[in-house]
Amino acid sequence: MNRQLRQLVLLTCVTATAVVGSGSAFAGYGPMNGESGKECFEQQKHEGRRGMFMKMAKELELSDQQKSEARAIFEAGRAKNAPLFASLRQERHELQTMVRSGSADESAIRAQAAKVAALQADVAVQRGAQTRQFLALLTPEQATKFKALREARHDARGHHPHHDR
């Protein structure tokens, strides 16, 4: 496997981990009160989003109207993007299967990686649109604070800011 292909596969795997891996934050919790594991995970995932939303709303001092509008934006985004994320998971799985098989040729792997990359681009576009919608409902002060909080969280995860900012 040539170097570029290895880098592409590695980038795809890292991105997959970043996008899908957030669910692992709840891996230590098991089902309760007769719930199945999936029901338990879905409830914890929802509570996690709610908790993050409430923390953000408090930090930004959102009004009740802003909270309501923001919830609507985020819920609509989740509903709209669910099929996109399902497709992305499926295409990533197919790519991983091809790579692990050892029998797929370079052109097949490249074609599958291109499908994954296109779906990742679609996800990025959708997230960008959702962020624009959210920023539009904030006051200029709140928008500035939101961007600063987002950068601080990004940096806290070990990412380094770009030098050209």
Question: How many DSSP-defined strands?
Answer: 0
Gyration radius over CA: 19 Å
Number of helices: 5
Give helix % range.
over 70%
> Would you tell me the overall average pLDDT?
76
Whole-number total of structural domains: 1
Helix and strand pattern = HHHHH
Write down the overall geometry: elongated
In quaternary terms, these chains amount to single chain
Secondary structure class reads: mainly alpha
Strand content: under 5%
Cα-to-Cα separation, first versus last residue: 37 Å
Instruction: Catalogue the unreliable spans.
Output: 13-46
The biggest beta sheet is recorded as: none
What brief labels describe this structure?
single chain; 165 residues; mainly alpha; 5 helices; 78% helix; 0% strand; elongated
Explain what this protein looks like in three dimensions.
This protein has helices at about 5-20, 35-60, 65-100, 105-135, 140-155. It has about 160 residues and is mainly α. The protein has one domain. It starts with a helix and ends in a 9-residue tail after the last helix.
